[in-house]
Amino acid sequence: MITNYINVKFLEQGSFITCFTAVNSESEKVVLIVSDNTQELQTRFDLAKKLDDIEGVQKLYGLQKLEIQDSALEQLEAEYPGIFSKDSHVLTGRYYATQYNDHVRQLSLPQKLDFFRELLVLVKQVHDKGVYHMDLKPSNIMVQDGKPVLIDFGQSVTEAEVDSVLNTSAYAPKHDVYSCNVIPEKFDIYCLGNMLHEIYTGQPLGYPMTPSSRQAQQIKQTFGLFAQNIIGQMTQRIQDLRISLESCLKHPLFVYKQETSLEKSQQILSEYVFCLYGDQQIEGNKQVINTSSSYSSSSFDVPQTLNQTTTNTTNSLRDLFGNVTLSRINSCILSVQEESQQ
């Protein structure tokens, strides 16, 4: 019915596109992304070209008008109302047979964490290109040869800050969606933190995980302090205080292959936090920001004590934390001052 394609089968429908699987003239199974909105398809194609050198991003091929036999158009319009017309255009994408959930459920927990770390590396590569996915969730991740592949960049942005986000996914931070200013990098990190929580518990978080929450205590008791800490840092309510992807990749959860005792875990996390925030020279006046070397699992983000030795508070802390003032950091710390339970 569609010229140059056979075995066309419905796959899924989005806000502006509809996807089908098909077999092309070279007998390859592909994904057809169909829409009358040529601008939507062109935007997706331009992003794909920008990310073309990243192996873990779905490859998309040229935008073209969809050739439909006249005798078949009426049948297609009846079968798929509002999708096919004489103005329909199509992007052809590479097809991946294995979905994220199908792959992950076959893995042991250590294997799941290794796979998730590969996903973090992949998302960081995309961010380094100045692209933010904004809809990270299991259905938008496929698997090829055991490696993660990102698909569906329909909600992606290339700005460092946006006014609003339209995303009702169970993995998205709802408090960011309703915010006037959204930081796309931190939005993606929250979604990933939600997916990491799902790896451990089988379901995403309904809201940010605070140190005293039931979810946090269950994670700590069942899987250890490392898991509790990184999920808490990734799902911070305050966007600025969410951990970066670079820091995620250095987190003890991915460095140490197994959880240690609580005391040893606290020591390791103290060293990790100190490496991130301690003994850092401030350009210009060369002043040092010191941090306490003690870590409490009741605080997910930064050490409990932050001593600032320069009068240029805002500029100095921006270098370390990214537009976060000392008062905001202290207020966040004070809000979670509960001693960890042995």
From TrEMBL:
Domain Protein kinase: 5-254
InterPro entries: Kinase-like_dom_sf (IPR011009), Prot_kinase_dom (IPR000719), Ser/Thr_kinase_AS (IPR008271)
One matching Pfam family: Pkinase
Keywords of this entry: Kinase, Transferase
GO MF entries: kinase activity
Presence of keyword Transferase: yes
Xref: SUPFAM superfamilies: Protein kinase-like (PK-like)
PANTHER family in UniProt: OVARIAN-SPECIFIC SERINE/THREONINE-PROTEIN KINASE LOK-RELATED, SERINE_THREONINE-PROTEIN KINASE CHK2
Protein name: Kinase
Organism: Hexamita inflata
